[in-house]
Amino acid sequence: MELISLPLVLLLISNIHSETTADIKPTLTVDPHTPVFIGDTVTLICEVHQFTGWEFIFTKPPDTKYYETIGTKTITSVEIHNGGEYKCIARRGNPQVYTKYSEPITVTIQERPTPQVSVWPADHVFRGETVNLRCVINGGGVSSWQYSWYKDDSIIQQNKLQYYTIRSVTESDAGKYTCRGTETRGSRYSHISNAVTLTVSNKPQTVLSVSPHRWLTEGDSVTLMCEVINSSTGWTFSWFTVQMNKDVDYELVSNSSGGSKGIYTVSSVTVKHTGVYMCRAERGDPVYHTKYSNTQTLWITGVSPSVSLIIRPNRSQHFSSESLSLSCEDHSKSTGWTVRRYTEDELKLCSSGTTSTCTIRSLYTSDSGVYWCQSESGEKLHPVNISVYNADVILDSPDHPVTEGDPLTLRCLYRDKKPSNMRAKFYKDGSMVQTGDMLIIPTVSKSHEGFYYCKHPERGESPKSWISIRGESVFQEMFGLKIFTYLLAVCPYLLATVVLVFKCCRLRGETSV
After folding, report:
1. What CATH superfamily classification does 206-300 receive?
2. Of all helices (H) and strands (E), which one includes residue 164?
3. Beta bridge partners of residue 289, listed in sequence order
4. How do beta strands 250-257 and 222-228 pair?
5. Taking the C-alpha atoms of 285, 290, 296 and 297 in order, what is their torsion angle to the nearest 10 degrees?
6. Is the separation of the CB atoms in 358 and 328 below 8 Å?
7. C-beta of residue 305 within 8 angstroms of C-beta of residue 400
8. Which of 66, 22, 14, 61 has the alpha carbon at shortest distance from 45?
9. Distance CA 231, CA 52 (A)
10. Which of 238, 395, 422, 462 is the most exposed place for a label (fewest CB within 10 A)?
């Protein structure tokens, strides 16, 4: 047998080894295997289970290569450009022999999501309200988050609950709230959310206002606006009337939704809308109520009321210590009318028993208020505003709205004897309109409506009175309409008569010639 030389044997072994190595295919994996966020760490693992002494090359097209003596490549604080398709290959020996390339693996890099914190019902809440904060994380490809809640950068809750609830908040709950998400099964985490600043105040106050004013005539429009002071949004508003001699104190008349303001409008008021109104707001779950608002009184005068309130002396302003008499005069001769009043936020019966007359022998400033006639069935008619002042000068002004076209006379009245100089200055809405012993407007119009007062150089200034001007009465309007209709009906006959007279006169002239 012919012996084979040693170099030839080594060459044959090398060829066999090269062929074996060329058939090897590494396995490439990535940790974590899910998409990662910018700033995270990614580790590529290339494994060859045959032989030892391998050197590894990690490639990312088009031209990125990482050479590692071990089978791992770690990329810290990854950026978007680190994402893409990776392969690996191994080599060993001298001369070097290479394995096949591994199957490709894709590394996905995503923007780290930033949660958004929302608060309900608002970020400005009031003592006793229930507040819900919600942490919303969009994107990231995470199926399940664990949420960490922070108040002023200190952790206050950590679990799978997306909501953080504060029941019956107090001022100590005020502060900046943030949240952060951490993958339930993994190492990924979100950014810290935006901060929501929670403000907590005492129980809110609602304010009720009336536009254009509280003294109205049937058919007018009026708006009652309810506003929550120093608040944001999410309120539902309710309007109530104060009840008297009933089982309930307040009766709901309307409600509406809004932000921090609510609007209740009556486009055409009637006498039945006369009353004392207040409002309240509510929001949240459980429902949270504000305090009741201030009261506003609406007084609607009928265009032709069957009952009149007779006042002696007949004016709206009165001196304290004077006497005052009010009585209900029923033109239809029915019974059961009494005088009522609303003073110092209190509804009272003014007349004695079931009589229709109220007599106050010595007035106090606390007697200031609104007086009206009320029937046994609750009908309210002819409201008037009575003001009592501990002053030296008052304005003699009418106690009821003045009808357009009627005259208006205003005078200065003095508590003690009349001054020698009777000339005073009269003002409307802060502007002087006339100097003299009285102000006379022969024919009033809507433009004369406003606040009036007088000022005497020695005695001082009177309180202000609101002079309300209403349109023509229904009787006047109906009378004018009837006259106009009558003229339309008779005009053709009048015209025909004029034409016939003219023709007769013309014929008589021709005959005489």
Report:
1. Immunoglobulins (2.60.40.10)
2. strand 163-166
3. 282
4. unpaired
5. 60
6. no
7. no
8. 66
9. 74
10. 422
Cβ 54 vs Cβ 68: under 8 Å: no
Question: CB within 8 A of 403, min separation 6: which ones?
Answer: 444, 469, 470, 471, 472, 473
33-47 mean pLDDT: 92
CA 299-302-303 angle, to 5 degrees, is 135
The domain made up of 392-472 is a member of CATH 2.40.50.140: no
Secondary structure class of 505 (helix, strand, coil): helix
pLDDT, one tens digit per residue, over 92-125 is 988 889 999 999 999 999 999 999 999 999 899 9
**CATH label, 116-201, candidates 1.10.3300.10, 2.60.40.10, 1.20.120.80, 3.40.50.2000:** 2.60.40.10
Q: pLDDT tens, 347-375?
A: 788 887 667 899 999 999 999 988 888 88
DSSP letter (8 states) at residue 23: T
| Cα radius of gyration (the chain) | 46
Place of tokens 């309710």: 238
- Calpha distance 41→435 (Å, rounded): 91
Contacts 24+ apart (CB under 8 A), 68-72: 71/45, 71/46, 71/47, 72/43, 72/44, 72/45, 72/46
Strand order from edge to edge, sheet including 393-396: 393-396, 408-414, 438-441
> Span 9-110: which CATH code?
2.60.40.10
SS3 content of the chain, % helix, strand, coil (to 5): 15, 45, 40
Question: Could you read off the pLDDT of 405-426 as tens digits, one per residue?
Answer: 999 999 999 998 788 887 899 9
Give the pLDDT confidence score for residue 304 in this predicted structure.
59
Q: Tokens 């504060």, residue? A: 166
pTM above 0.70, yes or no: no
Contacts of 170 (CB under 8 A, 6+ apart): 127, 200
Buried b (16+ CB within 10 A) or exposed e, 123-140: bbbbeebbbebbbebeeb
Expressed in angstroms, the distance from the first to the final Cα of the chain is: 181
pLDDT at 129: 93
Q: Are 276 and 208 in contact (CB under 8 A)?
A: no
Q: Give alpha helix (H) positions in 140-225.
A: none
pLDDT given at position 445:
92
Determine the 3-state secondary structure of 411 from DSSP.
strand
